[in-house]
Amino acid sequence: MAKLPISAEKIIDKFGPKKHYTPMGGFEGSHEPDKLVKTHCCFCAMQCGIQLKVKDNKIAGFEPWMEFPFNEGRLCPKGVQRYLQNNHPDRLLQPYQRVEGKGFEPITWDNAMERTISEIRRIQTQYGNDSFAMLSGVSLTNEKSYMVGKFARLALKTKNLDYNGRLCMVSAGAGNKKAFGLDRISNSWADLKHAEVIIIAGSNVSECFPTLTHYIWQARDNGAKLIVVDPRVTPIARTADLHLPVKPGRDSALFGAILKQLVDNDWIDHEFIEKHTNGFEAAAEAVKDYDLDWAEKTTGIEKEKILQAATWWGKAKTSFLLHARGIEHHTKGVDNVLSCINIVLATGRIGKPYCGYGTITGQGNGQGGREHGHKCDQLPGNRDISNPEHRKYIAEVWGVEEKEIPGMGLSAYEIIEAIHRGEIKGLISICFNPIVSLPNNNFVREAFEKLEYYVAIDFFLNETARHADVILPGSLHEEEEGTVTTAEGRVVKINQAIDPPGEARKDSDILIEMARRLGAGDKFNFENSEAVFNELRVASKGGTADYYGISYEKIEKNMGVFWPCPSEDHPGTPRLWEEKKSAFPDGKARFNPVAYKEPAEVVDKDFPVILTTGRVVSQYLSGTQTRRIGKLVDQYPEPLLEIHPSLAIQYNIQNRDLITVRTRRGEATFPAQIVETIRPDTVFIPYHWGGSHSANQLTVGDLDPISKIPEFKVCACQLIPTGKKAAPAEERSAYQSS
Amino acid sequence: MTVTKYDQQMGFFIDMQRCIGCHACEMACAECETNGQESMIHIHYVERAVSTQTTVQVCMHCEDPACANVCPADAITKDEFGVVHTAETSRCIGCSNCVLACPFGVPQKQEKAELMMKCNMCYDRTSAGKKPMCATVCPSGALFFGTREEIELKRPDSVPVDTFIFGNQEVKTKVKIMMPKGSNYLKVH
């Protein structure tokens, strides 16, 4: 049913993405703002502090917020340009409904709501409550994440709710819970500056989290050794003391080999292992055969380099290990994470100053968004939806019977598979663009075409919302008050700067109105965001992610509060585990044995080249916001295929030649960029684009069995030169390889 | 021009090694009303085919600025604080002498406007006691605006260098670049 009502070109003509360069009223307007509002960037999980200039209820520019302790005014290009999404010509200003052959036509809020409620009732009556699913996003504040979880379970009465953090850091979350019983980075970024050795695995820090780069440099000023594990020489890898160019998908082999070296050379902390951990022997046994020759052959990294990394790590007194999607986006993402944790625990370097471990969360509220209950397996406070005691506690907070809370549902990609199979018939989404961000997206698009009813809440008409029956215009980051939790576990305050324009509404007002019409209004009597947060505090009380002692006032006074913060007189917890007690009943951290496994898809004679994907600095996730900001688009206007010269010679490829990349799921054509900064057996494509430019047409939908994260970071492909050259890019010459 | 808060203790330091090529400085520079959304700072890859190393190109504010010396219209001036200002629009004749004369390749002729434009060290901000926009936002610390004592304390392995040698010509600048400790000058061959 939900094929596009008119061509994509016509939809783009009306709703974008179109490039926008100039702030409201030109640049003069930004010099006499009505007010400056202290808030945070709407993009990655650094959540840099920023002041937005407001004039006439529009964002007119920004002024650095020098006092905010994490970034002290520093911003990346996305942060500098973020204000231009406000007052953007593509902004959805009223509800729309699809009209076959005509596109999207305005509809009143009342009709949009009535139609949506009536379709939810029809589908659920005909097929059952779980046939209507919900997909959410972690661009949302903690308050909205909490509301979405409550809305889906109590108003929509479906178990099939999941979120786009499923594509991001769930492998890290699952690994953290298996090892520590709690899911958060162990230290604030301030500790990073004083570590002797830093390992960064699978994180293009300089492009994905540019303001964190400063902390790494400060550590190096203090004498830190930097080890970067990445198949590409990213800007941070370029400067590393040791770059380990791992073959995509072989990270746990590397960390297993390092663990073996730690054990063989007795670079381990016996007292810490004995007193504060369980399971060391099994973890060591699992890697006993992972000698350096095996590791070199498996990982593609010279054994001397692996030994050097193990030596530096083993002999250090303080250390920090950070990882991100590069090791998490795998069918064994949890294994990769656990293999990292094993070397941290083996050396006992956690829970004390300048020693830490953690994931660098990708999305703005990736941390808070994985704590408050819009995951399919989770209730607020990072509680387990299958645990009877956890269910009972939340049922009491919500004033319902425990049995009214549905059980565990399907994860994000599994929801798409269920739609494709015809088991799920209706969908509501908020701030999620799966047709760009999920793997194997031709399959995903086919699923959306099968939905009987799809309603999207968003502020721009993204590639997925084009398939909606009804579109409800929601709110931008700066249009609603709330909190987010940064990658270091600091809960910060998002202050409302302006009201939603036109007929657009705050996301929470949309959810409350929909809940009221579904007959659950009494559960959503929230006067404002603070009231939602106060309920969230109670709901999280006693959970592993305990926010009970955090208040709006306390956040503003302290420029953020680190959870856990279990009581009002508690100062918050920048550094975990100082008591050397994990969140497990016995207080001990867990080693987990990791036996190396190959990726779901390996190269063969038909598909002989490894494909990996990632980001560029000027774009964010599926590009819904950043592909509309002129200078960010101009900086990197199209996805390029990065290829090593030796592979390029093999295929007779030159710069800007158009190369079709084919996998078992689809094919797409990209201009080649020949660079020595990538492994010779691997090609790289950034994933921020949709349609014919989408890298995720090619990636695999295989999932990690525990975290259900897709394996974006490795698949097998063919390279087929088309014999044509790409037209000159609009990019600056600086971005063309010479 | 009323100058109230220009602090000559504050200096501008560039550390090329830390540049991550993100272009935040360019975009922040263009926010300045006086630039008309043009950036006066520029980022370049050194040689993208072999490295991700990028460099920052900003006006070095020379003690004896060649651009001002060769300007036939006296459009470029250096003020009492050592800031070399961009060409005064009422005087600039768009001849490009300054573009050719600058040893660092900084001034650019804006063809549309028939004018030379270059960085004036965010004079609108620095004269009001603020830091230049580019150095404020730089996420990696490649650009720094502060005192010499601050930078020496923060970066014990580096030293600020303000002397450049081009052939037989020695150029001293207000803007300093960070070099390995022990360096006194940078010789450009």
TrEMBL record, chain A:
Q: Which residues form the 4Fe-4S Mo/W bis-MGD-type domain?
A: 34-90
CDD domains, alphabetically? MopB_CT_Fdh-Nap-like
Q: Name one GO biological process term.
A: respiratory electron transport chain
The record, for InterPro entries, names: Asp_de-COase-like_dom_sf (IPR009010), MoPterin_dinucl-bd_dom (IPR006657), Mopterin_OxRdtase (IPR006656), Mopterin_OxRdtase_4Fe-4S_dom (IPR006963), MopterinOxRdtase_cofactor_BS (IPR027467), Prok_molybdopt-oxidoreductase (IPR050123)
Q: Which UniProt keywords apply?
A: 4Fe-4S, Iron, Iron-sulfur, Metal-binding
Any one Gene Ontology molecular-function term assigned to this protein's record:
NADH dehydrogenase activity
Q: Which GO terms describe its cellular component?
A: membrane
Spell out the residue ranges making up region: Disordered. Answer: 365-384
Q: Which PANTHER family match?
A: NADH-QUINONE OXIDOREDUCTASE SUBUNIT G, RESPIRATORY NITRATE REDUCTASE
Q: What is this protein called?
A: Assimilatory nitrate reductase catalytic subunit
Q: Which organism is it from?
A: Cecembia rubra
TrEMBL record, chain B:
Q: Known InterPro entries for this protein?
A: 4Fe4S_Fe-S-bd, 4Fe4S_Fe_S_CS, ET_IronSulfur_Cluster-Binding
Recite the UniProt keywords alphabetically: 4Fe-4S, Iron, Iron-sulfur, Metal-binding
> Mind telling me which PROSITE patterns this protein's record contains?
4FE4S_FER_1 (PS00198), 4FE4S_FER_2 (PS51379)
The GO terms this record gives for MF are: 4 iron, 4 sulfur cluster binding; metal ion binding
Top-level taxon of the source organism? Bacteria
User: Domain 4Fe-4S ferredoxin-type spans what residues?
Assistant: 10-38, 50-81, 82-112
Q: Name one Pfam family in it.
A: Fer4_11
Signal sequence coordinates: none
Entries under Gene3D superfamilies matching the protein: 3.30.70.20
Q: What is the official name of this protein in its record?
A: Fe-S-cluster-containing dehydrogenase component
From which organism does this entry originate?
Cecembia calidifontis
